[in-house]
Batch of 2 targets.
Target 1
Amino acid sequence: MRPELPIRAQEREIDVAIVGAGLAGAATAWAATRRGLSVAVFEQFALGHHHGSSHGSARIFRRAYEDELYVRLTGESAELWRELELDTGTTLLRRTGGVDHGAKRELELIHEHLSALRVPHEVLGAVEAGRRWPGMRFETPAVYHPEAGVIDASASVAACADASRRRGAIINESTPVTRVVPDEDGAIVVAGEQSWRASRVVIAAGPWVAQLVHGIFPFPPVTVTQEQVFHFPRRDLSVDWPTFVHRGARFVYGLPGGRDGGERDAQKVAEHGNGRVTTPSARDGAVDPVARSRLVGYVRDWLPGLVPEPFNEATCLYTTTADEDFVLDRRGAIIVCSACSGHGAKFAPWLGSRAASLAAGDGTVLERFRVDRPGLLAGK
């Protein structure tokens, strides 16, 4: 028996409904339409909006993790980024190389995992690293790997959406989903003035996910924070820097800024996971002046090759689980693909491919990403 719903326009039928058209949702649409599935996407804002976590021209792609699982998955993701670029005729991942350093960065473990998976890399002394990248300061050895680079997040969302439309996907912009109701035949998605019947529903709604799955899918406590990023002009345009992760007194990362960095490709620099706690509806988009002051001081001390005055700044949201692993799980007709804990952008085509395989019925759930993994539902 179907659940009681308000009388609406005639129900439309679809194989897969996708709620959210950020990086994960758009990539799921791309992957699902490649499988020949009929797809409808529902985005509460305009496509490419700046209210969540999937906008901007510069996100780090890196293979260097202190966790072997993510090193492996970045390799699988890299192959899918290439497939996406070939399919859409766009360049989405710019290779720059990446360097990791700092007293609190587990460099030996990174080296061990990269070696085990045969990822090309070098271990450099601090003096040698400083010579190779003038304008950056090092006080510990550094691990460099050439496969790192910069993802254009906004262009990636647009490319996935365009390719999905080309294969017949219906993308509903400015169409909030108000209810998802599972039943024995799949699920009903209520959006706008229509009800859609879907065999499977993928909820990839970032910081909005908990409110959508409440009562139909167990979901762990997550923390939503408003993070801020800053773009600093380069002093010497002839010097090309890699992306970097520096874990010293603070956890700071940087990368070439792309369009957001202006004509001179200013460096994007930010603290990782140090924003104030908020909610999607309560975020104000205002950059914290204390955070700006900290980053200016960091640039002055560690990046003398940059002018320590940001000319551009922005905010975005992190939605983070207690263990900082992803949630990608299925219960019946409902697949949840969130939260991505502030490091999911580089995995977007992998997340989309995995969610599409779960929707198609031939995928499996990784134990690390299950919603009921030990301690997660309790927020431990």
Note: Residues 225 and 276 are 5 Å apart (CA to CA).
Target 2
Amino acid sequence: MNTVQPIPRPGPVPVELAPGVHWVGALDPGLRVFDVILRTANGTSYNSYAVRGSGGVAVIDTVKAEFSDAFFAQLEQVARYDEITALVLNHLEPDHTGAVAELLRRAPQARIHVAPRGLDMLRALLKDDFADYQVVKVRTGDTADLGDRTLRFLTTPYVHWPETQCTYLEEQEILFTCDLMGCHFCDERLFNDAVGDFRFSFEYYFDHIMRPFRRHVSEALDLIEPLAISAIAPAHGPVLRSHPREYITHYRRLLTKRLASEVAQKTLLIFYVSAYGATSQMAAAVAEGASENPDVRVSLFDLAVGEVAPFVDLIEEADGIVLGTPTINGDAVKTVWDLLASLVDIETKGKLGGAFGSYGWTGEAVAMVESRLQGLKMRVPVKGIRIKLHPTLPELEDCRDYGRQLSAHLTGTAEPREIDFASL
């Protein structure tokens, strides 16, 4: 009986980015969810790079542990282990460091270059073997000498972990950015001018990985923008060799608040869900009070529509948000929690927050929402207001006053608090 013979396929092959610079990473086309939270429609890549100089070879990042065989097979095609003088770890998440321990066993002479804040992570990764290796703590401006080539380091904390950094190959103007300007997109053609359309993946990655750290990303771009750059080599997704400067410009555009040039006032967003109309009445009163301040622009939204995603962009650019929710079964309503959960994708630190709502029995929802706002590093300067059943006219005036206080805190005109220490 005749059988169909499988077509022989070549093993992993390194890809040349420039003379002496090779991609030695791994492709993971079957991945569909990354780090629990990101959907990856066509997988991802784990990009590792080898840079050869006259005085040695540097390896920049490694791969996820499951793909170590492919990594070593490619690395061995461009360098001997005894030639490796530097291991640069731009980021220490497992998808970048899965082959580090084994690489150091094969190349124990390699000096490990890592940002100071990555030292504890590296120690945890190598465990008892940590003391066996040479570790160099590098900061912005420090360099690693490869003979006729120089790697210069840029410390870029919280892009998106505390220890992240970028590495710049000076002579060939290649910037290795780790997660910055990367994306989860798998295509064996590797380069941005050869792969399929990855624009959606690029912006999706920004929204879920970089957006919560936009201030830190902006500071990283400040370091990067003055550099002459021929290519950007991230840790995931295509290598950006064609028009790399456009991707930097696009990142800057994604970071820019769109409303900043349109609205001179402070912006306060009020969201509410109302079961029987009581919280709705409170929301209208809070909005009325807050709107009395001419320097505050107030917007009111009913979350009963159930879709919270469209509001995330608004919240990111707003100066403050207030959430109104009834207490049902001892909790805030699900739509409010859904909105709060979506805020992990944006930077909320320092925004003003508040909560209000009606209740029938115990009224826990307001305090629960305030606690979550504080957990998001928002400031909650005014104690939330809660009202049993439907508000009376005096209680609605209390809601207006609550809105007035919130506006005053937004504009910096709130009266200083007087603390009665006897009541503490």
Note: Residues 1-9, 418-424 have pLDDT under 50 and may be disordered.
